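Hey, can you fold this one?
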Amino acid sequence: MEKSSKSVKSKLFQESDFFKSDDRGQVKYEMLRAQCHEGRFITRVCKEFGYSRESFYQAFEAFRKEGLTGLAGRAKGKTKPDKVTPEIIGYAIYQRAKYGLSGAAIAKEVFEEFRIKLHKRTVERILGYYGILKR
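Sure. Predicted structure:
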């Protein structure tokens, strides 16, 4: 859930130049510290720092697993295509190298061979990543 820096009501962030309410990692860390080290109730801490209880537990788990880096914001979205396997990559490279097929033609061949629908641009990205696609 996206949080506005205005939703942080903690005095730490209102009265100090050091604490920045738009730094979500810092807000989450101070929220966890307030609960864990000061023993304050989770619901009150969440309200004060502008996060839901679910977000508190997610931040707690991320901090437990990864430390401060777990509290830092991450880019949203996919990091890699979920349908593309090493076998499909090899097949696409082979089709381009042996037959010189375009991205659209390779996508069609992949569908016929594996019954997996790829966009021609996905195929072009694969070929470009491996240095096969020349523009």
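Helices lie at 11-15, 24-36, 42-49, 53-66, 86-99, 103-114, 120-129. Let me know if you want another pass with a different chain boundary.
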